[in-house]
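Feature request, filed as a ticket because there's no other form

It would be nice if the structure record came with a short human-readable summary line next to the tokens. Right now we just get the raw output. Example of a typical job, pasted below so the devs can see what we mean:
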Amino acid sequence: MAAPEIKDNEMYRLLREGKIEEFNQRKANGEACDLSGADFRNVSLVGLDATDLDLSNSYFRMSNLRGIDMRNANLEGASIHGAQISGVYFPDSLDATEIELSLQHGTRLRYKR
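Raw output as currently delivered:
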């Protein structure tokens, strides 16, 4: 598995710079973004519209994810080690044990099959 990367695209930069509302608006207007394998270490994503985002293999160590609805996002292989996750809706196909292991030990999230 490749290491998380700092992406070279404008939509990703908006998130890293905390411009969540602008990101959400541009996403709603149909602008594409590649967020798979992205490094979101120590980034606050509060308010993010995660619907249909591919966040697979992304790295959320110590990120602020509070209140985000990720039920329709792809989190396969992502790591949430030490992240703030109160109020987060995770996909139904992610077992609570998987979430806890990733949060406490940094394991990659694996969906139930």
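Something like this underneath would help us a lot:
The chain has a mean pLDDT of 95.
The chain has three helices and no strands.
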